[in-house]
Structures are given as C-alpha cells and as structure tokens.
Amino acid sequence: MTLDTKQLKTITLLYVEDDEAVMKQTKKLFDKIFKKVYTAQNGREGVNTFTEYQKEIEIIVTDINMPELNGIDMIKEINKYTLNIPVIVTTAHTDSEHLMNAIELNVDK
Fold it and tell me: What percent of the residues of the chain are helix, what percent strand, and what percent coil, each to the nearest 5?
C-alpha cells in the first residue's frame, strides 16, 4: 500500500493536544503533510475551533485526556454538528473504557 501525500495536501486538519511541546513538534510535521492545520489545547477549544471552521476541517486528531473537556466528550459535542468527520485518537491510556467510548463514537483509529 502506498500513501498518496498529494492527496493529504488537500486536507484540512484539526489537531487537539494539551501538551504544548507535543503539539508544537507534531504540528511542524502536520504542516508539511496537510493543506492547513488548526490547533486547540483542550476539548472545549477543540469544539469552538471546529464550529468556527467546520466547513474547512475534514479530519480530527485528538488526545483523550485533556483539561476542560476530554477528547471523548469533545467528539460527542462535534458529533452534534456532523457524524461524517473522521477522528483519530492519540492517547497513552490503555483503559478499555476509553477504547469502548471511542468505538461507540465511530472513531477511526
């Protein structure tokens, strides 16, 4: 399987991560891969950014454990606007409850 990086350059991403150092490093990489990258530092900010730019954002990458609103609850809020947006969850958690919640919300990876 080959990855078409030209296709990725047409996609706008919302990246939600509360760890500032991780966000900065990952955003540098994402900026090279995607057309545009919006960032948010917690779930509440993620929902606000999504609602502001929802016509542009085509995929979400989010952490689960964040202040103000965790990633799972953020996805629930965003699903009120659309159920068609792919979501990739990044986490250090091995808790099966988080996994089951993500599956119920149609998280892709």
Answer: 40, 15, 40
Both tokens of residue 101?
């919640």
Using CA atoms, how far apart are residues 9 and 6, in angstroms rounded to an integer? 5
Cβ neighbourhood burial of 87 (10 Å; 0-12, 13-18, 19+): buried
pLDDT band at 2 (very low <50, low <70, confident <90, very high): low
| Residue 107 φ then ψ, to 5° | -65, 140
Per-residue pLDDT tens for 11-70? 999 999 999 999 999 999 999 999 999 999 999 999 999 999 999 999 999 998 888 999
What CA–CA distance (Å, rounded) separates 17 from 67? 10
- Listed residue (83, 89, 96) closest to 70, CA to CA: 89
Instruction: Please answer whether residues 57 and 85 qualify as being in contact, where contact means their C-beta atoms are separated by less than 8 angstroms.
Output: yes
Q: What is the pLDDT of residue 107?
A: 58
Token pair for residue 41? 């530092």
